[in-house]
Amino acid sequence: MNPLLAKEATRALLALEDGTTFEGLSVGATGETFGELVFNTSMSGYQEVITDPSYAGQIVAFTYPQIGNYGVCAADMQSDGAALAGVIVCDMCHTPNNWRSEGTLPDFLAQRGIVAIECVDTRALTLRVREAGTMRCAISTTDLDPASLVARVKAAPSIAETNWVAKVSTPEPYDVDAKVDLDRPRRRLRVTALDCGEKRGILRGLIGAGMDVHVVPWDTPAEKILATNPDGVFLSNGPGDPRELPEPAACAEQLLGRVPVFGICLGHQMICQAAGAAIEKLPYGHHGGNQPVMNLLSGMVEVTAQNHNYGLVFDSLGELDAELSGGTEVVDAWHAANTHDLRFWSERRIAPVISTEKFGRIRLTHVNLNDGTPEGIQFLDIPAFSVQYHPEASPGPHDAVYLFEAFRRLMEGVPDYLAIDVREGRRF
Ligand SMILES: NC(=O)CC[C@H](N)C(=O)O
């Protein structure tokens, strides 16, 4: 038996869809919870992860072995509460020590009704998910019978069956004013943001780049958004299966070409679908603050924060345009090689382009170097671009924060708006 389980605490059981179970101790609310299991590799920033609305419907296992050691504080919230379904950790710290700490993570979880389990071998758990892929799971403090809990996990609904975006979006529009930098006075731009579960870090990124943001609910029609007369529209991150969200995708389709558009994560997936692209479910997604992304325009690598289970199938937009993609040799290499192999990207510098009927030419601008999946696109004939990862970090490195400045430049009509050196971007 795990010696840690000798501690005086409520027992909990974690059960996976594939029949694996882990015994542990309760470190949040008692009761039980069902959700989609994902693992997050961030070494710090657990509170930002736990309060990120994009995790609604998911149970997050932290791979970093000790969680909770610097406590929780109001300033780190990414939303009002915690929308995720549950938390799994190896070792939960009950006695945090940090000058910013205002409370402990177990109390925070218990107060918000989040069921959580500790003493789990999160390394074994993560290896399981990497082999078997994302799956449903449950944490229970009431049903400690492995066979029974596994059977109930198997009968639980999949994440795609619920509209999680509708649960986390703002019910009413609201405004956030631009942050004015007295050392760098410049025109304030007006952005309308479609809130599919927007993180506060993103709002901070937008207002920090001098934008007044008018936030509207996820199902606001495009015409209503355009009636707010914005300089640009932002499409936010959000939870759930993007293929089950026709409303925001239709909204994106109507906005593209009529106003400058920028999208992050779910917003990016909406823009891709609006352009006619297929979205696929990744084996176990990308969740963490240490994902390498190559900027195909500059050749620089950004270390980024990511949180997604789905991604763009770039080829599904159409045939590569040989002339714009660097010649037939490059296109042949693209078809012959495995673009999921890091070597493909390190051996050549290309940013392939596909011509689409609806919105003209679309260029692939960013790719994840862990698995070669496409993570950023730029429309060459209309003012729009989007990324699958998180320039706002929250938590994570700030390499990609230049993308908020790029959005500003797009709205200002700068032709090479995306051509910002990552190092220069750090100054914003
Ligand atoms: N952070 C996000 O916006 C996530 C988008 C989507 N729910 C996914 O998992 O891919």
UniProtKB/TrEMBL annotation:
Pathway: Amino-acid biosynthesis; L-arginine biosynthesis; carbamoyl phosphate from bicarbonate: step 1/1; Pyrimidine metabolism; UMP biosynthesis via de novo pathway; (S)-dihydroorotate from bicarbonate: step 1/3. GO terms for biological process: 'de novo' pyrimidine nucleobase biosynthetic process; 'de novo' UMP biosynthetic process; glutamine metabolic process; L-arginine biosynthetic process. Residues 1-189 are annotated as: CPSase. It comes from the Bacteria. L-glutamine binds at S54, G238, G240, L266, Q269, N307, Y310. Pfam families: CPSase_sm_chain, GATase. One of its GO terms (molecular function) is ATP binding. Small subunit of the glutamine-dependent carbamoyl phosphate synthetase (CPSase). CPSase catalyzes the formation of carbamoyl phosphate from the ammonia moiety of glutamine, carbonate, and phosphate donated by ATP, constituting the first step of 2 biosynthetic pathways, one leading to arginine and/or urea and the other to pyrimidine nucleotides. The small subunit (glutamine amidotransferase) binds and cleaves glutamine to supply the large subunit with the substrate ammonia. This is Carbamoyl phosphate synthase small chain.
